[in-house]
Amino acid sequence: QVRLVESGGGSVQSGGSLRLSCTASGVTGTSDSMAWFRQVPGKAREAVAIINSDNHSKYGGSAQGRFTVSLDNAKNTMYLQMASLHPEDTAIYYCAAHNDPILSLRPERYTFWGRGTQVTVAS
Which of 9, 36, 69, 120 could connect to 48 by a Cys-Cys bridge, CB 3.0–4.6 Å? Predict the structure, then answer.
């Protein structure tokens, strides 16, 4: 069973930066993908960034150019470096994983989920 634990959320001023971490346990093999999604109450879960064990990555439209996803395979930890944050980036950020190298932006493709970490960007 894969367990995902997010950390690094918090409050920041508009224009600031944050780095989120997601540590996975129980992940095996080299064909896994991990992803960041975010969700605001009343809205659908939105893909932020996806990366696989080969370090191929894909970004959702809102993250392109501002966020960077990375993976430390030795630590089974995925990071999301977020810069130039806007109040619109305020959401709960979730870590997700599935045993497939496909970089999917669809949340229903992911089997394992963390509990989320709150990011709040003040204007």
Answer: 36
**Cβ(38)–Cβ(91) below 8 Å:** yes
The two beta strands, 117-122 and 10-13, are parallel
Residues 2-53 have pLDDT tens digits of: 899 999 999 999 999 999 999 998 765 544 899 999 999 999 999 999 999 8
Report how far residue 18's alpha carbon sits from residue 73's, in angstroms, rounded to the nearest whole number: 21
| 3-state helix, strand and coil shares in percent for the chain, rounded to the nearest 5 | 5, 50, 40
Distance CA 4, CA 95 (A): 7
Cβ burial of 30 (10 Å; 0-12, 13-18, 19+) is exposed
Task: State CA 95 to chain mean position distance.
Answer: 5
